[in-house]
Amino acid sequence: MTATTDTTKGTTNNQMKTDHSRASTDAAHTHGGGVVPEASRADRATSFELSDFPVPTGREEDWRFTPVDRLQRFFAGELDGAAPDVTVEAAEGVTVERVGRDDSRLGRVGAPGDRTAAAAWASFTEALVLTVPRNHVAAAPTMVTVTGTGADGVAAQHVLLRAEESSEAIVVLDHRGSASLAQTVEVDVADNARLTVVSVQDWEDGALHLSAHRSRVGRDASLKHIVVTLGGDVVRVTPDAAFAGPGGNVEMLGLYFADAGQHQEHRLFVDHNEPNCVSRVTYKGALQGKDAHSVWIGDVLIRVAAEGTDTYELNRNLVLTEGARADSVPNLEIETGEIEGAGHASATGRFDDEQLFYLRSRGVPEAEARRLVVRGFFAELIAQIGVPVVSERLMEAIEAELDRTMEHATA
């Protein structure tokens, strides 16, 4: 197993960048022609104008792990594929609107950060807006089911989730079917609100899904952002979170399971731009089968004004069979020494044959022993998710994936 860990407590270094995972695995990350170097995360370009983003070549830092050859249609100026079917089961008190792109509430959380996100912004015609009213506590999750109607053309979709002041709710975005979808999800959490957002990517084989999540968290507000990726050909989710006042809390959780030929990529950015805010990131993934590929990039920026920040990010990957690859790159950039704590950890390892031998030596059949090891790997994270309808779905999905694991193991 290869593992890298970095933890900083109360550092006095005003310009500190840590990227130990990348440095320790350079041999595995070689790309023809070299990778375009990246400046500070604070300088990353954002824009609503498509022309401000060149077509990716795969040499850019943001795209160096991505199979851009499979995504060329997403880089066009106009995305005109058939929109997915969307159904909403709203909790009592949560309002549901379908609005035109001229609605003044759209685009206020932040501007797109790459060409695909800009193309999605330029191409959608109708947006889904969900609002949790001020002081309202939703008694049940709001379920949004997004069903693809085909992968022939690239569709654009825009979703805005609004939690008004002192409200509390859970929203689940459930993606199914077959699609080529460029999606934007804006999340606006007002002061003292509590919002949980779950995005499940359970696409059929052949689906392509690139989704930009942009979140703004107000004073003393909390956002729990959960990403679950199980299906699809290429899935790339880029969650960004920034604070709009002191005392905010962001928790980002992710679980993914990549099979043969699948590319699953999660690129996170937490922008600590306000004092006394907390962020925690935990992503875990398993991979199996030839050319299964997962990518996790975790960027945390602590700006000069963000004194009192407390942040930590963790990524773990479990490689179940030969031929699978996991890339994991945690990045921590600190511009002030007046923080409570900051750190990260990343590890990728093969299935532990010693654990398997231990269980089998005590009479546990091989198939059940493998299940126990993988269940244990994911158990703590599933418990953290804390949304029963999602947790149950995850356990069923993991069981189905473990059936495939046995197929790989006996092939």
Please characterize this protein's 3D structure.
This protein is an alpha/beta fold and 411 residues long. The protein has one domain (2-352). It has helices spanning 20-24, 115-123, 353-361, 366-385, 388-410; strands at residues 2-8, 16-18, 85-89, 95-100, 126-132, 142-163, 168-189, 194-201, 208-217, 222-229, 234-243, 249-258, 263-272, 278-287, 293-302, 310-319, 325-334, 341-350. It has an 18-stranded mixed beta sheet that branches. Mean pLDDT is 87; it is low at 1-36. Residues 1-12 have a biased composition (Low complexity). This is Iron-regulated ABC transporter permease protein SufD. Residues 1-42 are annotated as: Disordered. It holds the Pfam family SUFBD_core.
Total domains: 1
Strand content: 35-45%
Number of helical stretches of at least 4 residues: 5
What is the total tally of β strands? 18
Rg:
21 Å
Poorly predicted ranges (pLDDT <50, ≥5 residues)? 1-36
**Silhouette:** globular
Distance between the termini: 24 Å
Mean pLDDT: 87
Largest sheet: 18 strands, mixed
Label the structural class: alpha/beta
Measured as a percent range, the helix fraction is 10-25%
Order of helix and strand elements from N to C terminus: EEHEEHEEEEEEEEEEEEEEHHH
Please describe the topology of this protein.
Elements: E1 2-8, E2 16-18, H1 20-24, E3 85-89, E4 95-100, H2 115-123, E5 126-132, E6 142-163, E7 168-189, E8 194-201, E9 208-217, E10 222-229, E11 234-243, E12 249-258, E13 263-272, E14 278-287, E15 293-302, E16 310-319, E17 325-334, E18 341-350, H3 353-361, H4 366-385, H5 388-410
Parallel strand pairs: 5-6, 6-7, 7-8, 7-9, 8-10, 9-11, 10-12, 11-13, 12-14, 13-15, 14-16, 15-17, 16-18
Antiparallel strand pairs: 1-18, 2-17, 3-6, 4-5
Helix pairs in contact: 3-4, 4-5
GO biological process, one term: iron-sulfur cluster assembly
Biased composition (Low complexity): 1-12
Family: Belongs to the iron-sulfur cluster assembly SufBD family.
